[in-house]
Amino acid sequence: MTRSKSPAELIAEGLASYLGPHMAKSAVKTFSTKALGRPPEMLVHADIAPLLRALRPMLRTLLGAAEADNVIAHLTKEAVA
Amino acid sequence: MKYRLLLAVPFVALAAFLVALALGADRAHLFRVEVELAKSAALFGCAAAALRFGRGDYLRAAWLLLGQCYLLILVNDVFFRAGMGVAGDRPWAPTVSGAVVLVANAGQLVGTVMIARVWRVAGFELAGSPAVRRGVVIAAIAIALVAAGDLVFTSGRAVVHGDRVALVDLFSSVADIVSFALIAPFLLTAIAFRGGSLGWTWALLTASLFGWLLFDATLSFGAGPTLSEAMRLLACTFGMSAGLAQRMAVRAAPVAVAAAQG
Question: Within an 8 Å CB–CB cutoff, is residue A17 touching chain B?
């Protein structure tokens, strides 16, 4: 169902419900550039796991370690589905 | 919907307080009940938020520090506060009371700073251009000084004249000004998270801080006890709502992601 979405869109949409759509896009852009050295529109499917790893410290701060890991596990599962 | 209910709670509490006043309730008794209930509500919200996080989580420590402030001032009211506490008339009570309030305010200040700095710790950008952000910070500092500056001046003068107990008031007032200045990052974080469940936490926390700012302003400008208590009630109940919003947002995170993925 999410194959047509880019990896950046997939992650941003997944985070938007609690970060808000603006911050979710901004976070994906910031960490995509910082961690992978590329803008979000240039990410490929294989970049999802490293991008989620890069987002982990932010999510841990905002949601706590356990919930952040749940979110990352869920998004990883969605990405490969 | 649930978040909107949390937003409504402080106003419902305020309405109940005003209705009780209008019905001719004994003011001293009503104020006493309102003060303790409001602080208990805020403690409940902070504890609910803190306990949702795990040991070592950044925001757990911050919420615990906010919660200990409400707990300690409740303890102070029950045991040491002059005219209220069960040991309030003992000769050592003012010293112990001052120490308890000092620790409570110091912890509250650190907790507030931690929550205000969450954007830096998490590594994201606040809303607005740098110029807009600077403007909001300067406006917040100016409003904080207007609201609580007089209390610093009054307590500072008392300290200079040898009133050691006023040291606690001086510290509390300075801590209040620093906290009120942090309305700026709170507000900018709420705006950054707009449309997301976490945005409610920071929006309600901003409202709580603003309530405390207005509480101090009513004291500075001598607005009378009814208005002061109304502001205290709003500040505490917004604090409770913020804590509950934080708990709900964290708890709902994986569910929210699942819903978004649809």
Answer: yes
**Could you say which residues from 37 to 66 on chain A have a Cβ atom under 8 Å away from some Cβ of chain B?**
57-58, 60-66
Distance CA B105, CA B2 (A): 31
- Nearest CA-CA partner of A61 in A29, A33, A37, A27: A27
Tens of pLDDT, residue by residue over B185-219, are: 999 999 999 999 999 999 999 999 999 999 999 98
Query: Containing domain of residue B49, as a range?
Result: 2-261
Please name the residue of chain A whose CA is at the shortest distance from the CA of residue B261. A14
Query: Residue B111 is encoded by which pair of tokens?
Result: 């907790």
Tally the domains of chain B. 1
| CB-based contact B198 A17, cutoff 8 Å | no
Residues B91-110 have pLDDT tens digits of 999 999 999 999 999 999 99
Residue of A nearest to B201 (CA): A18
pLDDT at A56: 96
Q: What angle do CA B2, B8, B11 make, to 5 degrees?
A: 165
Alpha-carbon distance values, A12 to A15, A20, A22, B29, B247 (Å): 5, 9, 9, 52, 22
